[in-house]
Amino acid sequence: MKKNIVSAARLATAGISGLAFVAIIGSGTAQAAPRDCAVERDLFGASAICRPDGGSNYVLRVECLGLYANGPFPLYAVGPYHTLSYPFTPSGDRVTAGCTGAGPGILAVATNAYVEVYQR
Questions:
Q1: What is the pLDDT of residues 19-51, one digit of tens each?
Q2: Which candidate, 51, 119, 59, 61, places its Cα nearest to that of 86?
């Protein structure tokens, strides 16, 4: 039994280390589509600043990898998922979205982020 617990702990540590490595390598600033938007990504989320363009609605999509809520509490899953910001009309203000905060015990890192046109 002790051997199984030690093996599980080693596997979890390796997985978390790998997620952190992927997130750190992929961090940075990127130009996003639609034009005139700049996206800044960090380890656990991203933010975007878009200049006014006449009224289009956008949403910031953050792709995440890690532990997330998958159905009613207490069901969890491990793997890729995405979060969205609220739809916004560009005004030059910063909009943010993150991989954490979607439930208790969520542990995930941001792997990609971009702005897309919001369609209902």
A1: 444 444 444 444 345 677 899 999 999 999 998
A2: 59
